[in-house]
Write the structure tokens for this entry.
Amino acid sequence: MLSPVAGFLALGAYFLSLVTLSFYRSRKATLDDYYIGSRNSTWWLITLGMISDSVSGVTYVSVPGSVSTQAYSYMQVVFGYFLGYLIITTILLPLYYKRNLISIYSYLGERFGPHAQKTGSMFFIASRTFGSAARLYISVMVLHQFLLGPAGLSPVLSFVVAMGLIVLYTYKGGIKALVWTEAYQSVILLAAIFILAGFFWNEVQDPIATIMKPQIFFTDPKASNFFLKQIFGGMLITSAMNGLDQNIMQLNLSCKRLWDAQKNMITLAFTMVAVNFFFLALGALAIQLFQEKGIALPTLANGAVIHDQVLSTAVFSHLEPIAALIFIVGLAAATFSSAGTILPAIASSIEIDLFPKEWKNKIPVRVIHALAAVLILIIILGIYKAEARSLIDIVLRCSGYTYGPLIGLYGLGIFTKIQLKHQRIPYLCLIAVAISAYLDWNSANLFGGYKIGVELIAVNAIVFTVLALVFARTPTTAQ
């Protein structure tokens, strides 16, 4: 059993090193450093940092547990992610660098008008605040279950402390500091998962057979995990959640040159395939350990497996205390990396995209930064009250609703010369989300047993595009 004192000492040492690095890199930081790191970031440091940002605490604890009911079907989505990174590299990054953008939604303003820019920013903020809240929630709940709770902290206090620490190390330097702190956290994360894999490897009887056993490709066209649907959906999700996301693109735009940003995305594409497979293999080993010891997986009262607790339960209940210590530090790295990068991105998007001209520079961007943290904390408390079970599915679903209209908007902007009545765009986006939700919830009845999965984002994008062409198109062509 892990000693609470040892756990707190490990977390304390980790945060002390993180804050020290952040403060060192934030010395004399300007607003240009905060927004885009003065466009002087080293590309491979950004690649390294994006590993922990892309993994997040949800991936860390939920993806391994998903193997218990879904085998390796998540790899189908990951292969789609790979294709999405290539789309970002060849289409979106050249577009952003050509226009020398700070906020990527400025493109929508230039192409269609201010309402399009504000809509893009608002959908990004909605998606990322919920996604970051979900990621932080599940990670802190795991820490609370095995460390903070036994020490007497309430879940609400645990959430407040976690968000406060994130604000502390991201407040001053913004992107300039985050490039370094994210790279540092990725090193911690990768070291943790490799060491944990070694512990599980030594505990199960035939680790190679265990890792190779789960099925990857599923061929039932009506099922939500049909491989073509998941590959296609994963491609669109990554194109949107990374390429149309101010958070990720703000890091890319801090590179010195377009080619540096492209090298970053290509390297990340290959790296994330390997990292995600490693997480699934870790889950297979953990589940095999449960089976060999004759212990039931953690479940709800109705018998449904709690994916988010499979890996943590295996580590804390069936491995040595040192493994639990490593798990905690790795989880902290994944959690605070993905949650930390979002605050400068939200603050930048609000300042540049949403504020009217007379407000710009009157409200300091770092005040918006702190208010964004409060908003995320409120959402976390809402998720806590709702008692969500498996948040990796919820996060992917949320991206389908929020990024679908953005794909439609950017698609019309990049591949056509069509102009839109930009005042109608916000309403059409909301209508598209409502129609897509209806199709999603009733797909099995409407389409003869066919269940919409991660391709929801494509359905949403198509619905919005049709609505825009019918109700918002103008006869004027882009110059």
